[in-house]
Structures
1.
Amino acid sequence: MEGLINDEDDNNNREQRDERPRSSWAEVVSGEQDHQQQQEEEEEEEEQWQDGSYRRNSSTRPHQSDENNDDGWQTVGKKHSRQQHKIQKDGWNQYKLPPDEQQYSNEVEIGDRVEPTEDELTDLSRACEKLWDLDLNRLVPGKDYEIDCGKGKKAFHKGDMAQRSLFTWVNDDVFRKPTFGRFLSLLDNYIPHQGREEVVTSEEIQEQASFIEEISRTAPIKYVHRYLASKGIVSRSYQDFKRMMTSLWFDLYGRGGTSGSSSAFEHVFVGEIKQNNEVSGFHNWLQFYLEEAKGRVDYQGYIFPGRRGEIPDSETQILTIQFEWNGVLKSVSSTLVGVSPEFEIALYTLCFYAGEENNYIQLGPYALNIKCYHHGHKIGSVFPIADS
């Protein structure tokens, strides 16, 4: 699993921020300034991309190892939850089979709904709302999973404000969904430490191709293709589009000075640990659940929202949180919860090609900024920020 980068202004920005008295941070818990600084923290910590220099201190803590049961399930977790975490993995080997032995879901047929309207073609937020409506595999809080947000904290505060794991349980049926299962099978293909060159096996290449093929049968991906093709951004050939998607998300590039050490998929969804002991990327709820189940993630609590923001609860599907991964702190991280893998791939691909660095959108009841950074012609990083 893993690998990230920064710009020349980063050091100056960091010096200016660190010179502020600690009391100025403490003043802003319930106000606009807190929300703005929360965004700045994530942006500065995570996404300055030009020259590869990134320096920041972080605390480390030993982590628990995971246990493997003989029945194809993994269980663990150092925090209390009402139900023990379980992850069924015994069906994932089929995703490594040769192409002629792969079995895929039927194509989703929803007619004209995947055709973008003129309003959607001229308004990215409306297009993203359409994607939200087309996410037929999005989970329902309380029915498909349950989270316990614990207590809130400011980003700079130390200490664990969550007595329990973030995820109390996830329905076993979730892992039987084809796009979910194929996504999860990809997560162990990466070295977690940035700067280590990745070695991609033929089986892993097959897993990547199979994942793209599976999600390409869903409505969100079909919609994004037709949207981008209507704008002349991508080919109208769906086969060409699938090859482009494979390249966009899985092609390796250099991060932290080492070529072939990272990819958009690894950074955004899996996460990377930089040489200075800092977590970068890691914005996916399924990866969080998987790593928490193995005891590698320690959820520390949610980050206080701005003055207009709502305190998160078990129904919330956009979270700004703090956690440790493999004993390394991620002081501010944001993620969508319960959405399908195809939805996130579609949303971030759409914002990368048709949007800008800041993409202020509405997803159902949630106002968001999809922050998108380019690394040449690839995705450097992309993640949601709750626009409260």
2.
Amino acid sequence: MKITRQFHEFLNTINNVSKNLKSILGTLLMLALIVTGCSKDHNDDGDGDILIRPTAEEFNNLKEAALENLTQTFEIDADEGSVTLTSEKGVQIFISGTCLTLNGNDVTGAVNIEFVELFDKGSMLTANKPTMGIMPNGDRAMLISGGEFYVNATQDGVDLDINCGFQMQIPTDLTGGVDNDMTLWEGRIDQDGNLVWGEVDAAVAGQDAGVFGEGDFYYGFFQSFGWSNVDRFYSDPRPKTTIQVAVPEGYDNMNSSVYISYDGEDTGLAHLDTYDDQTGLFSEHYGLIPIGLECHIIFATEDGDNWKYAIKSVTIAENDVITFTEDETSIATEAQLTTIINGLP
């Protein structure tokens, strides 16, 4: 009887250990699945080392957070008629609440106005709002900006329309004074989710849409909400070329971007808008970069809710290929990167 009792106790012990092991293994498996599901992209660098790269969603979230940080909000009463709003940088927005509609019906009561103003290339980069204009042949070339703007009106979270336009008075000292070659452009989202600019045709939009400079201000007239820009094309008589940029392993046009800051131009930012999956190269494939141009090429991506970036000083040569390595990257907050980009020559 003693031997039997000891044997049963031994079996019970083995059974309990087995159950505990199964529980532990099950917990470890669940943890592994959770970690895998929540982790960033992992890539093998070819030497067996695992590279952790941001997802497209994480990179987009970083840019959206930057845009949100740059968004100003106002509240107006549609019943009060015409109001004047003044932005942080001194832009004045003239808008009438009686012009606001929802599904064709007049709006009454409280209305929220969202406003974004971008005058510097650091903010243009973090918000992913470069100054690339669509040429008549469909190619894209860099614009010099007198200011990028976003205006929208909502009521209870629903977008409103405007049936009689609105105006803005924009201080020209923010962009170096009046430039009479500036015209009005509207923002368009391309198939990759990037903002590009198309010139507003007054014959189509109406004579009340446009911009002109006088004294210390640009005066803009807008017929609809959304993105708009006071711009002209960058002009350089030198021969042009195409350039390509190689970025560190594991990055592409979904989780990173490449920009060009032209030296001497504080209100323009070019964007390399094409990426070749086969070669892993970003490209300005229109052949519009001036040979001999002194500029800075900027690689930008996400790292733990911060920006990972690298900057190279370059004098453009024909068919240039610029290469970034992982060792050349640094980490910065949004504010730090904005300051760094604005500090470029």
